Amino acid sequence: MSTTHEEITAVPRGMVRPGSLRDLIDAHLYMPFPFRQNQHAAKAAAGMVTWLSDRRLTDDPTVSAMITATRPAELAAYNSPDMDAELLQIVANQIAYQFVFDDRAEEVGRHWPGRLLPMLTESIEILRDGRPPRTLLGAALDDLHRQVRERCTPAQAARWAFNSREYVHGLLYEAVAQTDTVPLRIGTCKSIRSLIAGVEPFHPLCEAAQPRELTADELHHPLMRRLGRLSADAAVWIPDLFSAVKEQRAGGLINLSLAYQRAERCSLPAGVMLALRLINSTIREFEEVYDEIKPQLSPAGAGYVEGMAGWIRGCYFWSRTVPRYADTLVTSAAR
């Protein structure tokens, strides 16, 4: 049974049906990491609102409403409870930016695939070549890159840029999948989901929160690399449980629960249960691999892994109450 925390319910309690889809997830998800929240959460939330406004991203009422329903700073505070205020602010800003960018890329890719390429190539040029931005989204990314370079070491900033470029490239794969009429296989869905998870760009920020850089032996150890993959997959698959209803209604494809539902031709709750089994085994493997490598890690290395574990914990506690996924509370788990 998972440990849960709930400060604000996205839907009034009287509207929550007994045996809701969220109840099903709470009952079966293995969550060994207890709820925690950063003490600078309110400051990060206020700073994020100001940053989005300064970058003119919330000039669009649709974007502003999405940010209200998504609560990026709350996700940052749950994922990164030990970060100082400055670093937490970068995390909150980046989560907000990625939600804006991802939603826009999905919309453009689904309806006007040809227009997606200029949007993605601008991001790559900013991250790889230092080219000046041409759009508001590009200017926001350029400013984020500046924040990271000012706070992180050159090596950490380079890793951040590399991981961010991989995320951008993944959005092109998602667009191709969304326009294809051939049913998407589970393996392909998982591969694309790994690319567009958007979690791994935050791993260098987890490293930056430590008192020193990790050694090359620690950072590139095969078990450490495995932990990074397990963390990113578990962290992004957990929201897939809670967003399945929303994605199904919107015609989304890149969602683990929906992929299982299509493959097995089963109900949505049954698809969620199949996804839960994979997530639980992934989290247990994360624990096992961490136990194996822990004796070899420095305090900074151990703190880095704890930062990755924070993404697994934070994505769960955030997903279960965020208004963006409120449909999960009023959808029956009956099969």
Give the topology, please.
Elements: H1 21-28, H2 41-54, H3 61-70, H4 72-79, H5 85-111, H6 113-129, H7 136-151, H8 154-179, H9 186-196, H10 203-208, H11 216-219, H12 222-250, H13 256-264, H14 268-293, H15 299-319
Helix pairs in contact: 1-14, 2-4, 2-5, 4-5, 4-15, 5-6, 5-7, 5-8, 6-7, 6-8, 8-9, 9-13, 12-14, 12-15, 13-14
Looking at CATH, the homologous superfamily is Farnesyl Diphosphate Synthase
Report the CATH topology name.
Farnesyl Diphosphate Synthase
Number of domains as seen in the coordinates: 1
Order of helices and strands: HHHHHHHHHHHHHHH
Distance between the termini: 21 Å
Major beta sheet summary: none
Helix content: 55-70%
Shape: globular
What structural class results from the helix and strand content? Answer: mainly alpha
Which architecture name does CATH use?
A: Orthogonal Bundle
Counted by DSSP, the helix tally is 15
Please state the average pLDDT score: 91
Unreliable stretches (pLDDT < 50, length at least 5) are 1-18
**Text of the CATH class:** Mainly Alpha
Radius of gyration: 19 Å
What share of residues are in beta strands? under 5%
In short:
The protein is mainly alpha-helical.
Structure description:
Helix 5 runs parallel beside helix 8 (154-179) and helix 6 packs parallel to helix 7 (136-151). The relative contact order is 0.16. The radius of gyration is 19 Å and the shape is globular. The chain has 15 helices and no strands. The two termini are 21 Å apart. By secondary structure, it is mainly α. 69% of the residues lie in helices and 0% in strands. The chain has one domain (13-329): Farnesyl Diphosphate Synthase (Orthogonal Bundle), CATH 1.10.600. Residues 1-18 have low confidence and may be disordered.
